[in-house]
Amino acid sequence: MARPINPRRVFSRPKVKGFIPMGFYSSDLDTIYLTVEEYESIRLKDYMFLSQLESSEHMGISRPTLTRIYDKARKKIAEALCEGKQILIQGGNVIYLEEWYLCSSCGSKFNSMNNKENPTKCPLCGDTKVEQIDS
Ligand SMILES: [Zn+2]
Cβ(121)–Cβ(127) under 8 Å? Predict the structure, then answer.
């Protein structure tokens, strides 16, 4: 049986859902699917200019895993760029560190910081009436 993969830590949701080459309709194009963790590896390394080690620590994964995710992401983006494919950013196994939750039982607000998954239970009262809110 395959070992379950811990979710990768991602700071916040990507600003856009994807990209379409100019002058084309989405329905006419082949699609490259970039996972959210692949997007995050590009953001950390190529946009924030973090090292492999720093990026892997941010995402809570080993350096070899980060390298594998990052290499995949670059290949996908290059393919889209060179072959005129659209990119959709979706899927993956992630938690968003920046997202906040509200417990409708006790009214406390909390985020998923340092947890292994998005909270389903209030850390204060233990109730499961927890919903995501805009920070
Ligand atoms: Zn509560």
Answer: yes
Q: Report every protein residue that has its C-beta within 5 angstroms of ion ligand 1.
A: 103, 105-106, 122, 124-125, 127
State the total domains in the chain.
Answer: 2
Domain for residue 26, yes or no? yes
CA of 101 to the centre of ligand 1 (A): 10
* 68 and 38 assigned to the same domain: yes
Residue 40: which of 79, 82, 97, 120 has the closest Cα?
97
The 10s digit of each residue's pLDDT in 41-70 is 999 999 999 999 999 999 999 999 999 999
Residue 3 lies in a domain: no
- For 125-135, the pLDDT digits (tens) are 989 999 888 75
